[in-house]
Every structure is written in structure tokens, then in C-alpha cells.
Specification:
The chain is α+β, with helices and mostly antiparallel strands. Helix content is 35%, strand content 9%. Helix 8 crosses helix 9, helix 12 runs antiparallel to helix 14 and helix 16 packs antiparallel against helix 17.
């Protein structure tokens, strides 16, 4: 009885006997000894050759030398606020608590001057004020003038035209194409902004990786960590100053310890928006990025506020760079990473992570200016060559040397082709820039500069 017959019996009515066990073969070998396999007497050449699998049916070889790329996604960073947020009902009072107090939704007035942190202000050595009257007294201007500076008496609290604006507007062409708008404050507003910068913003430290517009730091300190690295990775933030909105500026002053009322007034003094009637109605897209309150490029307070608004960005990018054993610095809107050959091989994972962090921090990457520069090319960071040491480029040095030599021979008036108002100060500044990076070359250029006859 075979095994199949026994299995078939399960589906039939008549039971069958179980299959008989397969008898083991008897061995004539003595106990304790294992039988030896029989050797074939035929030669090896007589065995049939094995068939080879055709190449079309062979499995493709999988390279194991490179790690498999897995897309990485960052979760949004949750910021937990330890401040107790008062409800609007708790801030509503029946009578006007101070001048320019905002009316409440259900009647009365909002008192937004009671949630300040004087202990933080005293710890940082910042001036104390919480109402518009106290702010005007600190700025040493009348209260009415303070309201006039922030367009408190105009519709939408913004200038109606260029005549009522507190800024001068000037378009400048970018070297890489496009235009940028310079918004230069007028005298009265500039005086208020200078005091805010000197007595408030300059006393707040920025991140260690921020080297732009900071006392004791320069383009040389920004380029020094990237000297002699295998690869250089550069990013550029698009519309850096206009991307910092009014609410972020108010949040900066709130984090310092000022009340909501004081932070709103400080934010309006340091931000701006274009007039309602734009000068070029035929080109509305040209003015569109500046239609919302933003940091003006031209105000003395904008660089400091931009550095403080990018503090979380610097914190996250510097931590990411440490994980990849890389170096990170930022000079205004120029972001630079550098590292060894291991860092170069991990750029496929590193670049998407950087872009996600920048996007989460509400900035925009200019993809046209992203660069990956290896050490077999000229590596420059904010105009400083960093292949072997922080140095000025040879092309820039030779061009400035030729200009100074022609000024000595033919006079400076023939070399001012770009029409600088103070050509002597312009050349002196370029010589100082070279001296900062290379003292020997700077001394040679300074000797030529001192030989120029400015009467020609």
C-alpha cells in the first residue's frame, strides 16, 4: 500500500491500513563503522557537463558597497511656550487704561501692558517701558509724533503715498539678475531706530554661527572654519529681509520680556510696508513681496532683528552639521557648510535635510545659488578664498593693483568709470578689505594708494 492510497482513504468510506514503513537497507559493514561512498570508476571527463544559465535569465547583481537611500522626513519642531497667555476677556477693562489703547471685541478696552517680564529686562540691562507713553518718553519724542511715525492716524496704519511715507525707496540691480528694493528711513524715524539698536538689540547676543553685522565678527571669521576642507556646500536665502514679517519681529521683543503693547509698537517702528498707491501701477508684481509689513533693507535695526529671527535656524542647522561632522556658518543670507570626504559622500541625505529645516523655519532657499564646490576648484566663502588659507582672490588683487597703478600714472579721474561720489574713500575701503585678509598684499596696495595725486 502506497502513501497515495492511504491519503485517498481519508476521502473514501472504507478505511485502509496505514502505510507500511520503508525498510532500512541492511549494511554488511561491522558496527561502529560508517559505509564509505562508492567511487565512480569512470573518468571525470565522462560526467555530463552542467548546463549554464543564459545571461537573460540570470539575476542582476546588486551592489552592496553603497548604502540604500531612504527618504528622511523631519517632524515639525514644537515650541512649548512657558508664558501664561492671558485671554482677551482677562485684558478687557471698562475705561481706557492708556493712550492709543485698542477697543475690545465685547466693549471696553484692551490692556496689553500687564504681561511684561521686568525681571528679564533687568537681567539683560534693557530699558523698562510697557505703554506708548513710556516708550515716547524713552525715545524723547512727543506721544503724537510716535503715533505719526507708525502711521497710527492713517487708514490701515500704512502710508497712503510716497509723500506720507517715512522711507526713501530705491531699486538696485543684483549681480545675479533681478532687483532689490532699498528702503532707507528718513531722519526722525532713523533717530528712533538707532536708539532701539544701541540700547536694546545690541545687548542681545546672537548665535555663535552668525557672523554678519555682529561686533567682533567679519567675513574672515565666517570663512575661517571652512579653510582646507574637502567639499564646500553653499545655500542662499531668497528675500531674506522681506521674509521676516511683523509678527516675527513682535515675537522677538516679546521673548526679551516686553509686554504685548510695547512689542507691537517696537515692531511697527522697525518694520514697514509699501504705500497703498504704488509708484508703478503697471508693475504690481515688482512691489508684491513688500506689500506686507517686513524688515526694510536699509534700516539700521534690520540686520540685528534678522539675526535674532534666524536664531532657531542657526540652532538646528548647527546641530545637524555636528551630526555629520561638518562645519556651519551663516553671514546674513549666505549659509555655508564644509567637511571631509565622508561628508561629501553623505550630501545626498544632508541636502534634503537642510532644505526641510529652512522651510520649517519659514525661509525660502534660492535653488539657483546652491553650490557644491570640491577642493580641486576655487572655494570661496563670502568673497574669501579658503582652499589653503583665508585669502583674497588673485583676480581681485590684480584688478585693484592695476587700478591703483593707473591712478598713479594717469590720475584718479580717468579711472572712476563707475562714477563713485567719493572715489578716494572707495579705493581706501577696497585696500582695507585686502589688508584684512592678507597683510602683505594690503601693504603693497597701500603704498600705491599713498602715491596717488588726487589733484589730477
Amino acid at each position: 500500500m502506497t502513501v497515495f492510497d492511504w491519503v485517498r482513504s481519508w476521502f473514501s468510506s472504507a478505511p485502509l491500513a496505514p502505510p507500511s514503513p520503508i525498510p532500512e537497507p541492511r549494511s554488511s559493514e561491522p558496527a561502529g563503522e560508517q559505509p564509505q561512498p562508492e567511487r565512480s570508476s569512470e573518468p571525470a571527463s565522462s560526467q555530463p557537463p552542467q548546463k549554464k544559465t543564459p545571461k537573460s535569465k540570470q539575476k542582476p547583481l546588486v551592489r552592496r558597497d553603497r548604502p540604500r537611500r531612504v527618504p528622511v522626513k523631519l517632524n515639525r519642531l514644537r515650541r512649548v511656550s512657558h508664558r501664561i497667555r492671558q485671554r482677551l476677556d482677562d485684558c478687557t477693562v471698562p475705561e481706557r487704561p492708556y493712550a492709543f489703547a485698542r477697543p475690545g471685541v465685547m466693549g471696553g478696552y484692551l490692556d496689553l501692558s500687564r504681561d511684561g517680564r521686568d525681571d528679564r529686562l533687568l537681567q539683560r540691562g534693557l530699558p523698562l517701558f510697557s505703554t506708548p507713553q513710556e516708550l515716547a518718553r524713552w525715545l524723547q519724542i512727543p506721544l503724537v509724533q510716535l503715533g505719526w511715525l507708525v502711521h497710527r492716524f492713517q487708514e490701515q496704519q500704512r502710508p497712503a503715498d510716497l509723500g506720507s511715507s517715512h522711507y526713501y525707496y530705491q531699486w538696485l540691480a543684483k549681480r545675479t539678475g533681478g532687483e532689490r528694493l532699498l528702503e532707507i528711513p528718513k531722519r526722525r524715524l532713523r533717530d528712533a531706530q538707532e536708539r532701539i539698536l544701541l540700547e536694546i538689540l545690541n545687548r542681545v547676543p546672537v548665535h555663535a554661527a552668525a557672523h554678519g553685522f555682529t561686533v567682533g565678527r567679519s567675513i574672515k571669521t565666517n570663512a575661517k572654519p571652512h579653510v582646507g576642507q574637502r567639499v564646500l556646500l553653499k545655500f542662499d536665502l531668497e528675500n531674506f529681509y522681506p521674509s521676516v514679517r511683523f509678527n516675527r519681529v513682535v515675537a522677538i521683543f516679546r521673548s526679551l520680556g516686553y509686554s504685548r503693547e510695547a512689542a507691537i509698537w517696537l515692531g511697527r517702528l522697525t518694520t514697514t510696508c509699501i504705500p497703498v498707491l504704488t509708484p508703478d501701477p503697471a508693475l504690481p508684481g515688482r512691489w508684491l513681496p513688500y506689500s506686507i509689513r517686513h524688515l526694510p533693507q536699509g534700516a539700521c535695526t534690520s540686520p540685528a532683528l534678522a539675526n535674532l529671527s534666524a536664531y532657531a535656524l542657526d540652532l538646528r542647522l548647527s546641530g545637524l552639521a555636528r551630526k555629520f561632522n561638518a562645519h556651519y556658518t551663516r553671514y546674513a543670507d549666505d549659509i555655508t557648510f564644509s567637511g571631509d570626504d565622508v561628508f561629501r559622500k553623505s550630501l545626498a541625505v544632508f541636502i534634503p535635510l537642510v532644505q526641510q529645516i529652512i522651510r520649517h523655519e519659514q525661509f525660502v532657499v534660492n535653488k539657483q545659488k546652491r553650490r557644491v564646490i570640491r577642493n580641486n576648484q576655487r572655494q570661496s566663502v563670502t568673497g574669501v578664498v579658503v582652499n589653503e588659507k583665508a585669502n583674497v582672490s588673485r583676480v581681485a588683487y590684480d584688478r585693484l593693483k592695476a587700478t591703483l597703478t593707473n591712478c598713479v600714472r594717469h590720475g584718479p579721474s580717468a579711472q572712476n568709470r563707475e562714477g563713485h561720489a567719493d572715489f578716494a574713500a572707495h579705493l581706501r575701503g577696497r585696500v582695507a578689505h585686502v589688508t584684512l585678509l592678507n597683510r602683505q598684499r594690503g601693504e603693497k596696495l597701500l603704498a600705491l594708494y599713498q602715491q596717488i595725486d588726487w589733484s589730477k
